[in-house]
Specification:
This protein is of the alpha+beta class. Helix content is about 40%, strand content about 20%. It has a single domain, classed as Transposase IS200-like (Alpha-Beta Plaits).
Length: about 150
Amino acid sequence: MPHTFTDILIHVLFSTREREPMLNPHLRTELFSYMGGILKRLGCQPLLTNGPSDHVHMLFVLPARLPLADVIEKVKANSSKWIHEHHASRQDFAWQQGYTAFSVSPSNRQRVLDYIARQEAHHRRRTFQQEVVAFLKKSGVPFDPRRVFD
């Protein structure tokens, strides 16, 4: 798209199915790198992927031509398939159905990168569920607390 200029920063969170702690440190290292590669192949600019054993945070630049839902669907499907093919002990692995995503102001880029980088320490104090609810409330996103983690 000539003459189209964007800087659409997206912070995405999604968990393993039922928040099972399936992502050990070795798997996370490989998986997060692989997920960055998926984003690159789609035309996104991955900035950072990180998370503890039960969920993932990604910050990336979304190109104007791609719908966010399509990007997340491809990242989750391809990374799940990769886990099944390369980690025999994780044949029951799956991601949660949905995801949470927020736009990030370019002026907050470094703050979000720092937040994502510190996930291990952060989740010693707060669960994934608490984190998502706090993000939704802070952003003013309406949600049904009974259905947010289906």
